[in-house]
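Hey, weird one. I pasted the Cell division protein DedD sequence into the form twice and got a warning about non-standard characters only the second time. First submission, copied straight from the form history:
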Amino acid sequence: MNDSTALEAAAFRRLLAHLRERSDVQNIDLMILAGFCRNCLADWLRDAAEEAGVPMDRDQAREQVYGMPFAQWKAEHQRDATPEQLAAFEASRARHG
């Protein structure tokens, strides 16, 4: 691993730790503001694993991102989206889609 890759990996680990601490921030809020969420990160992680020839399925990738099985995180932290969040999400998709 070169220096740049090690730094990127450290930054990614810090991002995951931050998102795990901020379970109050819902995925829909991340999608509205940033255009990606924890599930996107898990998909990108799985894509990178596939490119490297490392077996990883969707559930494994999500567990690595969430720090627990996705179903558990969802039961403990995910709230139903409000009508306002859904409207903001649709508006964001229209602007960036």
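That's the output from the first submission. The warning seems to come from a hidden character in my clipboard, not from the data itself. The chain has a mean pLDDT of 95.
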